[in-house]
Design a protein that fits this description.
By secondary structure, this protein is mainly alpha-helical. It has helices spanning 2-24, 26-29, 52-55, 62-69, 79-87, 95-112. It is globular. It starts with a helix and ends with a helix.
Length: 116
Amino acid sequence: YGAFAEASLAEAQAAAGRAWYDKYCTQCHGPGGAPGSAVYPDTNEKVDLRRYVARHGGKFPAGEWIAVVEQTEARAPHADVWREILEAQPQTMARRPVARGVVVLIAEYVKSVQAE
């Protein structure tokens, strides 16, 4: 039962993450994590989120992922998206943690689309 519940939870989180990914990320990163217009600044190589884990040594860098998305400097590539996610949350003290939860669900979706 435990393994089944974990698998079901992971699938549910990935499904929720896909909805958020489609809303906030597809425009730049492409559908299903396939390359869109986003490029790595150091190489100008298109970002293929289906290879994100492989690019990071086989592990998903959760802390780095959240830090990159939450950057708010004017030139940060995700500043507008983070602001949109944050502003979509109810005006409560839990606004930032709830917005971060959206980012975590998007990460779960990205983990689910990794190429073998």
